[in-house]
Request: fold
Amino acid sequence: MLKNSQLILASSSPRRQQLIRSLNLPYTICVNDVDETLTEKLTPVEIVEVLSTKKAAAVFEKIQSKNKHGIIIGADTIVVKDEQIFGKPKDKNDAISMLLQLQGTKHEVYSGITCIDSDSGKRIVESQKTIVHMKSLQIEQIERYVNTGEPMDKAGAYAIQGLGATIVDSIEGSYFNVVGLSLSLLSDMLGEFGIEVI
Ligand SMILES: Cc1cn([C@H]2C[C@H](O)[C@@H](COP(=O)(O)OP(=O)(O)OP(=O)(O)O)O2)c(=O)[nH]c1=O
Reply:
């Protein structure tokens, strides 16, 4: 067993916390607020990789003085349609506007993952893309969905793992990447730190 087989999830997302639990490895959650504003124009891959690294690096800094050891995991998810980036909606109107643009067509979901070893500082950054085909929706359906509250803390204003499953037609690629953390990619990355999930 490696000394650093403890995982430290740098995320307040309940979805990511639930997903990490399913790996059956010891883990803790440690979050440090980061400013997610980006000043330069970046590609979707760069955005999710930069932001996942910011989240993991903020926790790396935080635990230096705390004698805490492990592999820190940060993640970030965005939705992209015609080069337009959708993060989490600011309010209900923003959520409605996003869903109006996403309905009846396809878009991409990018999630970045950064792993940092608290002891050596070794860092691995990866990302994945999933294509999501969304059904055509009436404005009334969109309003009813937004009124459930589910879209408000989700990139692109929907949750494929919730009621949003009923408005998704099909996907190409990893489902868990859409939910915010590809367990398949993460397990490969952990392998690079000598951690075997199975
Ligand atoms: C598209 C989609 C996104 N999401 C979520 C995943 C992410 O939690 C969220 C995008 O916001 P993020 O900024 O990636 O993450 P977060 O703020 O929720 O959590 P943290 O930064 O602390 O890790 O959208 C779903 O849960 N389901 C979906 O179908």
